[in-house]
TrEMBL record:
Transmembrane segments: none annotated. Pfam families: SAPS. InterPro entries: ARM-like, ARM-type_fold, SAPS. Belongs to the SAPS family. This is PP6R2 phosphatase. It comes from Polyodon spathula. The gene is Ppp6r2_0.
Length: 347
């Protein structure tokens, strides 16, 4: 005797889709919606890619949810919306990356006055970052048409998600010719100079810290990519600018203005240490960072004076920019700036 077993089980999502009046929120309440999306459930993808559904999903990740609901579930739907939009399903990527009206809704998130909601900013950055990697040409073309894009990103650089967005533009664009175009565009927008200008006394401390970290990451990423792509004919314009004597001198001028602050000095020194070596300096107290910097410079100066060929990526322009300010660092160790917090700022 044989029994027939129906091993196919209908998901709760499919059952909901059988309803004529099913709503997006009803589907998002189902625990398996993301799993079904990634499994490319055709009916679900057709539903989600409707114009109104896509607009609702993008709006969820870019607008503050109501404040009159329980904080534990306040960001439930924005979080699910972000996971759906970044599920790396071609159907959704094509719809989002190919519809300029949806990209406009996304972009308007940047046009808000600071501070941005950090959680929504992370959703925004993750979504744009996914599109930069998957729908590169469409998204880069859209962003390049926005004259104020870089200004808006830097306006919100106190939010770490904006750092991630900049680094995705630098590291996630393929093929190589398009990546070079993006680097040239960012250089034309004077990205490096504007980040350096944020490292100065009087600027918001979080902005200074994030600008410093962004510069350090750009240096490391650019050097790594230059090493991997040695046959590339065009140099990396961002790396060329950040390693230039002019940039180093401007950073040091910002650091050693009369009203110099501990925060500015430490963040500036972090960039200088990264320029002098590719290894991360690690977590060190503020004055220890400066001492380590001085030892590093002294060693490099000795090598140069002895005529040794350098095999590492420290350009002479960096040393030329630093050398006139060594006396300022030495004076700083003798008369450190007043500490405004209980403990020294650490990197």
């Amino acid at each position: 005797m044989f029994w027939k077993f129906d091993l196919h089980t209908t998901s709760h999502v499919d059952k909901l889709l059988d309803k004529e009046d099913v709503t997006l929120r009803e589907l998002m309440d189902e625990d398996d919606i993301l799993q079904e999306c990634k499994a490319q459930n055709r009916r679900l993808l057709l539903f989600l890619s409707q114009d109104q559904c896509m607009e609702d999903l993008v709006t969820l990740i870019t607008q503050e949810p109501p404040t009159d609901i329980d904080e534990k579930i306040r960001f439930k739907y924005p979080n699910i919306a972000c996971e759906l939009l970044t599920s790396d399903v071609n159907h959704i990527n094509d719809k989002l990356g190919g519809d300029e009206s949806l990209l406009e809704i996304l972009y308007r998130f940047l046009e808000q006055e600071p501070p941005l909601n950090p959680l929504l900013a992370s959703f925004f950055s993750k979504t744009i970052g996914n599109l930069i990697a998957r729908k590169t040409e469409q998204v880069i073309s859209f962003l390049r048409k926005k004259d104020g894009f870089i200004s808006l990103v830097l306006k919100h650089i106190d939010t770490s998600a904006m750092m991630d967005l900049l680094l995705r533009l630098i590291s996630c664009v393929e093929p190589a010719p398009l990546r070079q175009e993006v680097l040239n565009w960012l250089n034309e927008e004077k990205l490096i100079q504007r980040l350096v200008d944020l490292i100065r006394t009087g600027e918001d401390e979080e902005k200074q810290s994030n600008a410093s970290q962004t510069l350090c990451d750009i240096i490391r990423l650019s050097r790594d990519q230059a090493t991997q792509m040695q046959d590339t004919t065009e140099p990396d314009p961002l790396l060329t600018v950040v390693e230039s004597q002019d940039t180093v001198e401007q950073l040091l001028k910002n650091m050693f203005k009369e009203d110099k602050s501990e925060n500015c000095l430490v963040n500036g020194t972090q960039v200088l240490l990264t320029l002098l070596e590719t290894r991360r300096p690690g977590n060190s107290p503020a004055l220890s960072v400066i001492i380590a910097f001085l030892y590093r410079v002294e060693g490099l100066m000795d090598l140069c004076s002895q005529g040794y060929e350098r095999s590492y990526t420290v350009n002479n322009s960096i040393l030329l920019g630093i050398e006139p300010h060594l006396k300022d660092f030495q004076q700083l160790l003798l008369n450190p700036p007043k500490v405004t917090r209980v403990s020294l700022f650490t990197l």
